[in-house]
Design goal:
Blueprint (H helix, E strand, L loop, with lengths): L1 E7 L7 H10 L3 E6 L8 H9 L5 E4 L9 H14 L2 E4 L4 E2 L3 H34 L11 H13 L4 H8 L3 H12 L1
Parallel strand pairs: 1-2, 1-3, 3-4
Antiparallel strand pairs: 4-5
Helix pairs in contact: 3-4, 5-6
Length: about 180
């Protein structure tokens, strides 16, 4: 089945140009959305992703209509590959049913991995530099007094976890970790 996805960023924008291109391409069903790409929750896209099956073909007018970022595009392409779904971007001349389309996506995945590695290396170097100047990274530790107060509140069974967290500023994770340590 050929499935289309069309999106514009605002309610005032018109989807018609994309819809015409998708219909001309032969899309059996078209998912439409009027929502900014920066929104992580896009119901029509999510519905389409749940619906696609092996052998289907997802078609968009342009790459920027389906993805928020390069990283998101890579995640989508990996999902399509896992499901056995072909992907086509009409204006970008990308079609993963042919070797050049597959090459393009693999190249993008390699670039995204390189970008992640560079960011990781910069972060590591920055932390190392800060340590040499006597600075420690990470979140500030809670005092033992705060943690003991949180544990006493928990043991009293008079307070909910959220009340304890709000009153003592000790995180849920820290509280549970210390509760488990006491049990051992």
């Amino acid at each position: 089945m050929i499935i289309g996805y069309a999106r514009v960023s605002t309610q005032e924008q018109n989807l018609q140009m994309q819809l015409d291109a998708l219909q001309e391409f032969g899309c059996f069903e078209i998912f439409e959305e009027k929502i900014t790409s920066s929104k992580k929750n896009r119901p029509a896209l999510d519905e389409m992703l749940k619906m696609v099956r092996e052998g289907d073909r997802v078609v968009v007018y342009k790459l920027d209509r389906i993805s928020r970022s390069t990283k998101h595009l890579i995640e989508l392409s990996e999902l399509f590959e896992e499901k056995g779904v072909e992907f086509v971007s009409i204006k970008d001349n990308i079609d993963t049913s042919n070797p050049m389309g597959k090459f393009f996506f693999r190249m993008m995945a390699s670039l995204a991995e390189l970008e992640r590695d560079i960011i990781r290396e910069r972060t590591r170097s920055g932390l190392e530099s800060a340590r040499k100047r006597g600075r420690k990274g990470g979140r500030p530790r809670k005092s033992e007094k705060q943690i003991e107060t949180a544990l006493k509140m928990y043991e009293s069974k008079d307070y909910s976890i959220s009340e304890i967290v709000n009153a003592t500023k000790v995180s849920q994770a820290t509280l549970y970790r210390r509760i488990n340590e006491k049990k051992e």
